[in-house]
Amino acid sequence: MLALQRVPNLGDTSAKKLLQFVGSAEGIFKEKKSTLLKIDGIGAVKLKGLHANALLEDAEEELKFIEDNRITYSYFKDKQYPERLKHCLDGPILYFQKGNIDLGLKKTISIVGTRKVTSYGRKFCEQLIEELSPVNPIIVSGFAYGVDIVAHKAAMDCGLQTIACLAHGFNQIYPKVHKKYVSKVEENGGFISEFWSSDNFDRINFLKRNRIIAGMSEATVVIESAVKGGSLVTADIANSYSREVFAVPGRTSDSQSEGCNNLIKSQQARLLTCAADIVYMLGWKLDNTKVRPQQTELFAVLTKEEEKVYEYLKEKNKELLDSIALQCHIPTHKAVTILLNLELKGVVRPLPGKLFQCV
To answer: Other C-beta atoms within 10 Å of 151: how many?
Structure first.
């Protein structure tokens, strides 16, 4: 499989076509070119380097590096391969990982943005992740300067799993200043990369890895972005995968908000003001393995708005989210936050179909 990944000009989409037709990577190298050329979309250019002697030699050398550095790998048909990434035609046929990644957790979002994060973007990112922590999502980002590293750090501070997608092999870490976070990320999630240790450090690799960031997540959140930037590429890829995209609005005079404002204005992203927007749009529920509600009598007094919603639910026993918001004269996105807080306090529980009931 390593050798197949290395064939020049082939690409992941074409490699998957070959695998589907032949059945195995070993079979592809043994099959006649004339037979492979009958596959739709497979031309002579893509097969030109298939039988180069260096392929197997390079693969053996990389396999030694993988084994020596305790790196694991995942084939796109493996059970542990991210389910959402399996549905992306151009997803990598093979990727490598280090750490303690547990993709059994289904709630996964990517958070991306500018490398020149402002104090506004930093604060929003940290608060967003803290507010999301009760639903226990995996936070995915690119381990770069700015929004990426803020997201990783905030996730770890909240006890959440975080995954860093790298644009290079495991023989290096970029940026070097982030080496101090490596061991902590591996303890609280880990690193993923499709690149070999022998791959050149190239700008195009950063754009290529963005499809993994977008592909393995249920939604992509853009915190801040200038009018052009890698995070906008990630948002575009997420849209092409029919995934939700959220963008944080900013002042029209702020250059680092221009990209987000354009995403919202062109309806390529949903406006994001708080964690409740994500919880509501994705239909997320509280993860009781992360936070267990306490008994009502042990909890502090409810806020006025929480008490208003609680009393209404107490009267109705159970009610739809939209009806709760309407009857309590509270915006829906705010009602989601209130209901989440009431669930944390053990006085309300969610039911299927966006119904909520008093405990």
So the answer is: 30
